[in-house]
Specification:
- By secondary structure, this protein is α+β, with helices and mostly antiparallel strands.
- The chain has a single domain, classed as Alpha-Beta Complex (paralog of FGE (formylglycine-generating enzyme)), CATH 3.90.1580.10.
- The longest helix has 10 residues.
- It is globular.
- The two termini are about 15 Å apart.
């Protein structure tokens, strides 16, 4: 996990355009890669892999927000395991628990944490080819009419996930925050960004939608930017949706 130094009273600007907001973030840790299928099966059991595109080093996908956060979900299981105890021992702390990041934490880390003012469009670069797996570099077929078909269809033609950490990391040493898989955040989704907490905590509301960030392997570049917000129901599963772990510092 990468240490993400907080804003220390100098807020970062969340979002884009007229909706940008000043947000304070506390120190925390963010996983350097999305949760892989190897980690998922280690925690949840050898026969538990829900992923469509199989590979130990590929991100786990096809998981709902409830699969991650529910009473018997991944977070409950990993926080009850020896893994978290060993992490706490190495860090010399107690009372540690892994969680999903808030949306504002996610964006702050994607922008490079204290180096957010670098202003990169994607996580770590303005060159998406350097940092992300997305529709244009995914190795799928390119027969005549391919892109025209994609514009008319939601079919995931010829795209798939890739092993984590093959692209260039961002300023914090964090990989794949643009592209590969969308990542769940803890927040309920709200279109009114003025209601998002300014202290880095997740937005809690009565919506059934949750926040996804980062874009995925079949998306256009615009979906893989550090500011793109997306919402979907918490029960949703497909081969484009995974998650990443965060850890608070106390």
């Amino acid at each position: 996990m990468a240490y993400v130094e907080g804003t220390k009273g100098r807020p970062f600007l969340f979002g884009e355009g007229r909706e940008r907001r000043a947000i304070d973030i506390s120190n925390f840790f963010m996983a350097t890669v999305p949760v892989t299928q190897a980690l998922w099966t280690h925690v949840m059991g050898a026969d538990s892999n829900p992923s469509h595109f199989r590979g130990d080093r590929r991100p786990v996908e096809n998981v709902s927000w409830h699969d991650v956060t529910g009473p018997d979900g991944f977070l409950s299981q990993i926080n009850a395991s020896l893994i978290i105890g060993e992490m706490a021992r190495q860090a010399g702390v107690t009372g540690v628990s892994l969680r999903l990041p808030s949306e504002t934490e996610w964006e702050y880390a994607a922008r490079g944490g204290p180096r957010w003012a670098d202003g990169f469009q994607f996580s770590g670069s303005n060159d998406i080819e350097a940092v992300a797996w997305y529709d244009r570099n995914n190795g799928g077929p390119r027969e005549p009419g391919f892109w025209e078909h994609r514009l008319r269809s939601n079919h995931l033609l010829g795209t798939e996930t890739h092993d984590v950490a093959l692209k260039t990391p961002n300023q914090l040493g964090i990989y794949d925050m643009s592209g590969n898989v969308w990542e769940w955040c803890q927040d309920c989704f709200t279109r009114d960004t003025s209601t998002i907490p300014t202290d880095g905590t997740p937005f809690v509301g009565d919506s059934s939608d949750r926040v996804l960030r980062g874009g995925c392997h079949h998306n256009w570049a615009i979906h893989c930017t550090v500011s793109k917000r997306y919402e979907i129901v918490a029960e949703h599963r497909d081969e484009c949706v995974g998650f990443r772990l965060a850890l608070s510092v106390t």
